[in-house]
Amino acid sequence: MTATARETVLRRVRDALSLSDGPAVTVPRAYRTGRSLPDEERLALFVDRLVDYRAQVRTCTAATTAAVLAEVLREHGAQKIGIPPGLDPAWLAGYDGETVTDSADVPAPRLDVLDGVVTASAVSCAETGTIFLDGAAADQGRRALTLVPDLHLCVVDLSSVRTGVPEAVAQLTPEHPITLISGPSATSDIELERVEGVHGPRTLAVVIRTDR
């Protein structure tokens, strides 16, 4: 007698449940690790991936950080920006607009009055163009700060850029709230029409410091 679709599904569910009482299964996790590229190649790969995600990218040195950040903010007309409490104040020495230091006491809707936000970053992956933010770090701030304003200006030290995902993830603390950023927030409808800024910043600007 041919089994019905319902009987087949139920049998598979029963079989799966019976397997749960069996011995533990070891999942192999022999990820390829230890990959490393020279600084120039790692930078070129990272920039290529960021641009492919439609992020705006600039590079600077430690000495020119403040000037470049001020120029980017001026280009976007950012007159009022939010910053996490631990951001290096020297980075905004050239900025002549208003800065608002964020805290957990500020309701998320009030962040919508900001023209943008400036944060540091924890680690990045060159291969995927992904930036990782650690919500427990004082210079990166809480997740809401980087999701509500329309512009996110993120500073990345080239020394924190790893070649691949395993190398980048290894630098993170799993217990911390981690945000992964790959370009500006975007989504597509059934017609594949891309819309940016739906679930987060419409614009992602990345300033890569090539030295400390």
UniProtKB/TrEMBL annotation:
It holds the Pfam family LUD_dom. Residues 118-208 form the LUD domain. It comes from the Bacteria. InterPro entries: FTHF_cligase-like_sf, LUD_dom, NagB/RpiA_transferase-like. PANTHER family: LACTATE UTILIZATION PROTEIN C. This is LUD domain-containing protein. It comes from Streptomyces tubercidicus. The lineage of its organism: Bacteria, Bacillati, Actinomycetota, Actinomycetes, Kitasatosporales.
